[in-house]
Amino acid sequence: MRVCTACENRPYVRAMLNLWRRHIGKCRQSTRTVVNKCSCPIWVEGSLHGAKVRRSLDLRSWEAAQKVVRDWEARQTVSVSLGEAFGRFLADCSARNLGVETVGKYDLLRREMTEAFGSRPVDSVSVEDLSRFRESWKLGPLSASKKIERMRTFYRFCLDRGWCEKNPAKAVRTPKVTQNPTLPFSDDELVKIRESVDAYPDRPHGRRVQLRAFILLLEHSGLRIRDVVTFSKDKISGGRMFLRTAKTGASVKMPLPPVVLEALDPLPARPFWSGECEPKSAVGDWQRTLARLFKIAGVPDAHPHRYRDSAAVKWLNCGVSLENVAALLGNSVKIVEKHYSPWVASRNAALEAEIIGKVWAVGA
What we know:
With 364 residues, the protein is of the alpha+beta class. 49% of the residues lie in helices and 9% in strands. The model is unreliable at 1-15 (pLDDT under 50).
């Protein structure tokens, strides 16, 4: 590698890779001063392993730029910029038919990382760089953990293609996540919410009818709010509902009670979403509607997902097995056991029998 110490707009061409500073308008340094006295952006130009290279390094430290170029020359392949790597990664995500929201989260990570690191080579971002990047987040522990997992997935993609020699995101430790216990609605709270529909403003006309059907479907189906928002009546046949969940793509089939079918009957084929906006926007509108309803009902700490918890707990308390509850929720048995194990009636009865029959018997 030959370093151009003249700070001219064109580098020497006798070397394989040449560094030079691209002076900005406010630069007061002359073209013949020592390179380290100038803080203008550093560029690299030349040939690397038979490929032409001309790009900004997004660096102003001459020593750091020299290290990056030395690392490039030591490698057997051309280094890929962060933006190029993310472009290929997002294209791969689309080719794998990942969900729109999943790809959107990866695209958000792309925008944030390119804002933080510019067009630096993907293999020049160190563990320390990612740690400082993580320190700038204003996220809760669970959201931060998921974001770190997305970073690891991206760098695993780069590693598999030989664009970097290691996965620096693996060394970024995830925060401790404390899972809040599942808190279903009590029977009294469910009654309060249903009765509060009559006090909800009927604007536009028919809103109360629509809202009543919405909360009844939430309560009796155990669906996530997005699946209820995008629900259509053609998913019902013979009093049974069949659909694929948006989050996991799992098939869910269950009978709906008459009270839900009667509430849905006067509504259009697509009762809760016009289809004219993105599902995410419609979900946000319904979340605000439910928040207003919960406030009218005087139910604290209420949110739509508690309907799903309530349905799962009700089924388990009625003796439905973990496997069947998992099928109704469109989840794995492991997830259901993790979140709802304390509510399994048969297990609790067995534990009580063990205590009474063994521990208490010894004490007597």
